[in-house]
Amino acid sequence: MATLEEALYGAIRGSLDRLPWRKFSVRSVSHLLAKEVIECSRWDKDGKAYAPDQYTLSIHPRETGKLERSPPDVQKELALDLLKVLNATGFLLAREPHITLATDPTLPTGEIRVIAWHSGDPLEATDEHKEVHETKDERPAINAFLIVEGSRHYPLNQSVVSIGRLPINDLVLSDIHISRRHAQLRFHDNCYTLTDLQSTSGTIVNGRSIKAHILRPGDVINMGTTELIYGQDPSGPPGVTPPYIPPFKPLRDRDEVTPLDLKRNLEAETSILNKDDST
């Protein structure tokens, strides 16, 4: 995000300086724009990111007077600046970006709000995206599910599942610590892979931060303050959430001898002695 933010700062500074009433920081606009681009981007099956094409920059009307005082081509210049930066940093666009300068009386003075969105689904326009949904062998052939917060069951019956805070996601998690487009599940080779979409708080599986992870039954996923457990069951999701048991001791505990280990060793030695005595 830092690289994108710096590129935006250098590109839009000249256009924003043309606004006679500008009192807000160009740095803050660059930061908010970069954050919106990353959080609202849509990712295809090859990991390519489609940036949003619609942007609104809003400030309190008391700071601007009338927007008619703005040079009429500033919005177009900002959009062109943004397009150049997105192309240079590897983002794709289904349509050329459009930027609107607006006022919002609900905003505190000195604050600027940047909102980005897609005018349509950029993935629907690609043949690659259609192939994911039309190829039969990519359809989940396993009965997989997620257990959300120990009580809610979410069946995984799609080849691609988006997870995040926005209502457009397949699995919507109402957690302020979760990004609007937080992570994605993709089914391939008879398993699901969980990919973090450069979220703000990150994605953790079994206590470790991940970028991409092939899920196995019992994996514990943490996004923000929300916990999910991945499961597979031919008979469907269980009625009771089973406790997670790690497949092996953590590395730091593997050489540790516990009282239970001593008890087992003692029982084994006693059994051998009794056997020798009887012979």
Backbone shape = elongated
Class of secondary structure makeup: alpha+beta
Radius of gyration: 26 Å
Percentage of β-strand residues: 25-35%
Low-confidence stretches: 127-137, 244-254
Helix content: 25-40%
Could you describe the largest sheet, including whether it forms a barrel?
Answer: 6 strands, antiparallel
Measured distance between first and last alpha carbons: 74 Å
* Largest sheet: spatial strand order: 7-6-16-15-12-13
Q: What's the total number of strands?
A: 16
Average pLDDT metric? 78
Number of helices: 6
Element-level helix/strand string: HHEEEHHEEHEEEEEEEEEEEH
Describe this structure in words.
The structure is a single chain. The protein has 279 residues and is an alpha+beta fold. Helix content is 28%, strand content 25%. It contains 6 helices and 16 strands. The chain has helices at 2-16, 26-40, 61-64, 74-88, 127-134, 259-278; strands spanning 42-43, 49-50, 54-59, 98-103, 112-117, 144-148, 152-156, 160-164, 171-172, 183-188, 191-196, 203-205, 208-210, 212-214, 220-223, 226-232. Helix 1 crosses helix 2 and helix 1 (2-16) runs antiparallel to helix 4 (74-88). The longest helix is centred in the C-terminal third of the chain and has 20 residues, at 259-278.
